[in-house]
User: Which sequence fits this backbone?
């Protein structure tokens, strides 16, 4: 779990290859044959309208959902084999009914035993060192999400997945989270985040995957995507039109 | 009115008979509770987080057993422990041990079913995060038990309330023998039938006080947990 990574090391979970991924719910294909290859390090943002399948695709990548058809490989590994090199931060952080510090200690018992100082450093990195002994669930929403991110980063994951992790958070928390995500990416962690926030995507994204109707409709470098999106759906989305 | 006055006199005077009965009642119920907790908490947790064919039926059965009439439990344990029963050779019938066994049988489904519900709710909340953190097996079970500690405490106290107030099963397997298996509930039944209302009333008062204490503890634990967002 504690894979020490550096920016110069090739990321073992790249490239990420998603081939003909299908997921059926009821009589509807919510992922309708996604084909995608992500081979660059940095931050990839999944964008798209509600119900397009962004979160489902992220959950498939993490192994939380088994697709009905198709294949995902990360480097030479399957999703299951890569699980201990991945970490995910959910939209609504789930913290244990313990103190902030105990939450970190539970996530990384090895570190808690051998390098307890790292847990404090992790709290410091999200500006929560002074809250170490507070019950985690009494922290504000933004503080809880920062703690969830610190917990996810303890394992030094090769792939960090964030599912709308900053939705409805206070600007200060968003700033801390974005800075940490950027720093993590610079250190060699591949980051994939789902976001509806175009401003955030512009601030963070190296490349954007536009998901529409259960498919990866477009993948472009971020600057290109925001200036000249290739698909009509992406143009309409960026123009703020309602996509049904 | 005389009976009520006499009842309070017995309590205030720390009447030896009264406190012998009280002590046995508490001893039997606490031992039964401890044994039952060791069985029912892991059972309830395991049923909450493990998928296997027939799991729903097991939960249904557990819920049904919660309402099992104490006299039926008493009869089953009696048949088991009676001289001609499969465990008759142990010679446990009409002993406090038999009463403990009956109470364990009676409250285990209650604590297991209640804890199952508590852990199932927690499992729904934690499962994605635990999957993501690679927390499985024994580590997950321990985490659920630790995180649900306050809710589980109230389940255990509910079991204690049921055990201490129970009469049907313990009278069948204990026999209500003076200085040996006479507990509060069986003594109340006997003394009432004999017309000795003062002792029955004093025992009833103590039983009521115990029930109030247990319920106060339940509320206290809940409030403490809610205050610290541990509920």
Assistant:
């Amino acid at each position: 779990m504690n894979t020490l990574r550096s920016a110069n090391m090739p990321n073992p979970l790249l490239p990420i290859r998603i081939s003909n991924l299908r997921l059926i719910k009821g009589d509807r294909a919510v992922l309708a044959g996604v084909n995608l290859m992500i081979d660059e390090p940095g931050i990839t943002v999944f964008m798209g309208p509600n119900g397009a399948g962004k979160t489902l695709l992220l959950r498939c990548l993490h192994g939380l959902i088994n697709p009905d058809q198709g294949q995902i490989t990360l480097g030479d590994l399957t999703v299951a084999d890569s699980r201990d090199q991945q970490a995910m931060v959910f939209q609504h952080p789930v913290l244990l009914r313990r103190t902030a510090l105990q939450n970190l200690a539970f996530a990384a018992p090895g570190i808690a035993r051998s390098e307890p100082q790292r847990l404090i450093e992790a709290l410091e990195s999200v500006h929560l060192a002074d809250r170490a002994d507070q019950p985690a669930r009494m922290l504000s929403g933004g503080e809880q999400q920062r703690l969830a991110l610190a917990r996810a980063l303890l394992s030094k994951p090769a792939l960090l997945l964030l599912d709308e992790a900053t939705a409805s958070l206070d600007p200060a928390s968003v700033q801390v989270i974005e800075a940490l995500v950027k720093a993590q990416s610079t250190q060699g962690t591949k980051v994939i985040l789902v976001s509806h926030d175009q401003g955030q995507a512009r601030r963070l994204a190296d490349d954007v995957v536009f998901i529409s109707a259960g498919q990866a409709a477009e993948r472009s470098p971020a600057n290109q995507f925001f200036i000249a999106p290739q698909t009509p759906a992406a143009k309409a989305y960026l123009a703020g039109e309602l996509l049904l | 009115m005389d009976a009520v006055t006499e009842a309070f006199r017995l309590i205030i005077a720390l009447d030896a008979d009264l406190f012998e009965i009280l002590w046995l009642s508490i001893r039997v119920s606490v031992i039964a509770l401890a044994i039952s907790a060791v069985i029912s908490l892991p059972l309830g947790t395991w049923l909450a987080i493990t998928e296997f064919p027939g799991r729903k039926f097991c939960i249904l059965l557990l819920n049904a057993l919660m309402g099992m009439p104490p006299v039926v439990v008493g009869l089953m344990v009696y048949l088991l422990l009676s001289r001609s029963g499969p465990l008759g050779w142990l010679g446990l019938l009409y002993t406090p041990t038999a009463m403990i066994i009956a109470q364990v049988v009676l409250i285990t489904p209650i604590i297991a079913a209640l804890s199952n519900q508590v852990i199932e709710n927690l499992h729904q909340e934690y499962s994605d995060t635990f999957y993501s953190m690679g927390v499985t097996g024994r580590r997950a079970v321990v985490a659920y038990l630790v995180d649900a500690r306050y809710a589980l405490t109230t389940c255990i106290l509910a079991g204690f309330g049921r055990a201490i107030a129970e009469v049907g099963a313990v009278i069948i397997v204990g026999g209500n023998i003076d200085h040996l298996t006479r507990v509060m509930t069986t003594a109340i039944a006997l003394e009432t039938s004999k017309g000795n209302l003062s002792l029955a009333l004093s025992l009833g008062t103590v039983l009521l006080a115990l029930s109030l204490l247990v319920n106060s503890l339940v509320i206290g634990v809940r409030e403490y947990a809610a205050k610290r967002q541990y509920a």
In short: The first strand of chain A starts at residue 16 and ends at 25. The mean pLDDT of chain A is 93. Residues 5 and 188 of chain A are 7 Å apart (CA to CA).
